């Protein structure tokens, strides 16, 4: 059943003795130890999310490949890797990061529309599980690099199924007017060439319709299209071993009125799609690429009220977090539930407020017209759903040091990324001038 919009999953975040806690640690203690703004993660919430997605696919050979772009902190990668998770990467930097975290290259899928030759060389030398090709020119580049290295590149063609995921247009990836993937006729035309090449091996097919899918139906449709093409490839002689169903598994941000489907529903949809496409007999390993579904709801952005300002009939709550720590509201008009760390008196009532940061942009807001209790300078607020695309999209805009990241396990707190210093924000910049004649 759906929970009310801002009700907590009390296994991981709950009010205890009037104070909001991450597992067994009060947020006011976290603020005292690490300052604000800070990202705070529940390790148990991540473990629970991985177990649920893994169980959703338990009836078929599968690989849960975490989308590293959601949050690439090394401690998070190590934690998921130890649980058996694979990794979906989109850059050479992410490849190096995942390898540094100790995740085997055989569990890495390399996606992305713009891989450089340097990145392709690194992936082939590392021995990644597959390189997901998204255009004919990319296939040219990959074949050239593989020839140069005397290697045979494991290719997975990413098909663009032209399926509408009904999500925000900025995170929709499965329509023909998006930059992602290959239209089926183009993918089909590349098949003979791949099969004939001594430097290419077609090991799989993939698709991805978008992020934060409200329903598993678009994923089922995309998988069915991809599975049908897989059967066609197998008839042509390809020895496929992988079908990547992409990501899109959603989390609850707090404003949803529709039911959020559990992981089991997405697992069933993928299986139905494989059957509809006629690929059930191929015994393909199913890969999925969840990002926010693994870490999003496990994270909170902890922030402190600086000022409360009344202007033009509105209440502005100015906090020390900003779009530099959580850009999703400004970028996608995304909603994140906001909770006071001190449990509000239910008799106090709530009034609309704009929750804004110190950055010099009108778009620097974390919540608009949000019903909030009376607040004053020094109060702490917890912004939910910040485990994904929070720290990974953070910036130093306005000269702001990046916030620290803290992992909580039961009553233990571990700093997994230190707060940047002011000096860190200009480290690497050149201080000397060069005259141009």
Describe this structure in words.
With 437 residues, the chain is an alpha/beta fold. 27% of the residues lie in helices and 24% in strands. The protein contains 11 helices and 20 strands. It has helices at residues 27-34, 43-56, 74-82, 92-100, 117-126, 136-149, 184-196, 217-235, 263-276, 292-295, 328-332, and strands at 13-16, 19-22, 25-26, 38-42, 62-67, 86-89, 108-110, 130-133, 153-158, 200-206, 242-244, 285-288, 299-311, 314-319, 338-340, 351-356, 365-372, 380-384, 405-409, 412-417. Strands 4, 13, 14, 15, 16, 17, 18, 19 and 20 form a 9-stranded mixed sheet that branches. Strand 19 (405-409) and strand 20 form a beta hairpin. Helix 2 packs parallel to helix 9, helix 5 crosses helix 6 (136-149) and helix 8 packs parallel to helix 9. The protein is globular, with a radius of gyration of 23 Å. The model is unreliable at 1-7 and 167-176 (pLDDT under 50).
């Amino acid at each position: 059943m759906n929970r009310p919009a801002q009700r907590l999953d009390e296994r991981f975040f709950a009010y205890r003795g009037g104070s909001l806690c991450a597992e067994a640690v009060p947020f006011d203690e976290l603020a005292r130890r690490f300052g604000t703004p800070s990202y705070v993660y529940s390790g148990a919430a991540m473990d629970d999310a991985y177990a649920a997605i893994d169980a959703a696919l338990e009836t078929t050979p599968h690989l849960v490949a975490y989308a590293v772009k959601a949050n690439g902190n090394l401690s998070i990668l190590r934690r998921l890797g130890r649980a058996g998770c694979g990794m979906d990467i989109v850059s050479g930097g992410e490849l190096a990061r995942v390898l540094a975290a100790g995740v085997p290259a055989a569990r890495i899928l390399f996606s992305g529309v713009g891989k450089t030759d340097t990145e392709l060389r690194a992936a082939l030398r590392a021995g990644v599980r597959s390189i997901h090709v998204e255009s004919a020119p990319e296939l040219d580049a990959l074949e050239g690099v593989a020839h140069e290295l005397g290697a045979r590149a494991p290719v997975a063609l990413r098909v663009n199924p032209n399926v509408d995921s009904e999500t925000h247009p900025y995170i929709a990836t499965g329509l023909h007017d998006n930059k992602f993937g290959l239209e089926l006729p183009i993918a089909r035309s590349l098949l003979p060439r791949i099969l004939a090449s001594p430097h290419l091996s077609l090991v799989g097919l993939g698709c991805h319709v978008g992020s934060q899918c409200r329903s598993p139906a678009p994923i089922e449709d995309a998988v069915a299209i991809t599975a049908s093409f897989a059967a066609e490839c197998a008839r042509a002689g390809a020895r496929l071993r992988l079908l990547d169903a992409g990501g899109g598994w959603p989390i609850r941000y707090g404003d949803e009125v529709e039911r959020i489907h559990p992981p089991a529903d997405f697992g069933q949809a993928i299986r139905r799609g494989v059957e509809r496409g006629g690929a059930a007999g191929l015994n393909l390993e199913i890969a999925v690429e969840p990002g926010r579904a693994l870490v999003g709801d496990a994270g909170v952005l902890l922030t402190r009220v600086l000022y409360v300002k009344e202007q033009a009939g509105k209440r502005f709550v100015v906090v020390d977090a900003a779009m530099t720590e959580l850009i999703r509201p400004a970028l996608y008009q995304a909603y994140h539930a906001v909770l006071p760390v001190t449990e509000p008196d239910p008799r106090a009532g709530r009034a609309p407020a704009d929750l804004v940061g110190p950055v010099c942009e009108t778009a620097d807001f974390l919540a608009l017209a949000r019903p909030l209790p009376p607040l004053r300078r020094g109060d702490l607020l917890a912004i939910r759903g910040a485990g994904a695309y929070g720290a990974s999209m953070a910036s130093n805009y306005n000269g702001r040091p990046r916030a620290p990241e803290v992992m909580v396990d039961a009553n233990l707190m571990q700093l997994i990324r230190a707060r940047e210093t002011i000096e860190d924000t200009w480290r690497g910049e050149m201080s000397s001038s060069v005259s141009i004649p």
